[in-house]
TrEMBL record:
Occurrences of domain Methyltransferase small (ranges): 43-141
Single GO term (MF): nucleic acid binding
SUPFAM superfamilies linked to this entry: S-adenosyl-L-methionine-dependent methyltransferases
Pfam family, one: MTS
Name under which the protein is recorded: Methyltransferase-like protein 5
Length: 208
């Protein structure tokens, strides 16, 4: 599948009807999602026939793209039942069978139960910059525990140094694959502008 074709399919994925501020519900744009997945697939061969987890999957744009690129199975994890209901409808609409979902708090999952149970983890986690400081790192810790090979994640560029230190502590290799401008829609009342651009790193962590 070509990049443009993937992006145009992902444009048809429904997103959060009423995004919840406390859960940092902003969807990955079809363009960013397609570029991420295309790179994970073509450069690193971490999608086709792989068992994939998508943490904080929301309405499922990353899972759906991974399933279209022939993931063996992609399992989305999210705390919010409304988001998962939309995810389910999206998966049905695209008639994808290699997709599943679990409603849970990713930060409360038992580490041992998920230890190295997936080949690849993909995610756009909550950035953890409001009431929920450190949430991004809790997601990352869980992702690194779950993955056998690699984790692909989006993080605010301003947190890069902190993440680099953690990667050393946790003995994983990290590589900034791309620097993105992430357009946060002003779907939240406290945003005065129509949208806010923030700098975000697309990072690959490899488990050695
Ligand atoms: C930035 S959104 C990304 C949504 C989706 N992955 C995408 O790329 O469009 C973060 C997601 O994390 C979910 N979330 C927030 N806190 C969570 C938690 N503790 N456990 C599981 N999911 C959580 C939200 O409901 C939301 O869907």
């Amino acid at each position: 599948m070509k990049l443009k074709e993937l992006e145009s399919c992902l444009q048809q994925v429904d997103v959060f009807e009423e995004p919840k501020l406390l859960l940092e519900q902003y969807p990955t744009s079809p363009h960013i999602a397609a570029c991420m997945l295309y790179t994970i697939h073509n450069t690193f061969d971490d999608i086709e026939n792989k068992l994939i987890a998508d943490l904080g999957c929301g309405c499922g744009v990353l899972s759906i793209g991974a399933a279209m690129l022939d993931a063996g199975l992609c399992v989305g994890f999210d705390i919010d039942e409304d988001a998962l209901a939309t995810f389910k409808m999206n998966a049905e609409e695209f008639e994808l069978k290699n997709i599943d979902m679990v409603q849970c708090d990713v930060c409360q999952l038992e580490l041992a139960a998920y230890d190295k149970k997936f080949d690849t983890v993909i995610m756009n986690p909550p950035f953890g910059t409001k009431h929920n400081t450190g949430m991004d790192m809790q997601f990352l810790r869980m992702a690194l525990n779950m993955a056998r090979t690699s984790v692909y994640s989006l993080h605010k560029t301003s947190t890069r140094e902190h993440i680099q230190k953690k990667a050393v502590d946790w003995k994983v290799k990290m590589e900034v694959v791309a620097e993105l401008r992430y357009d946060l829609p002003a779907s939240y009342k406290f945003h005065k502008k129509k949208s806010v651009d923030i700098e975000v790193d697309f990072i690959r962590f490899s488990i050695t």
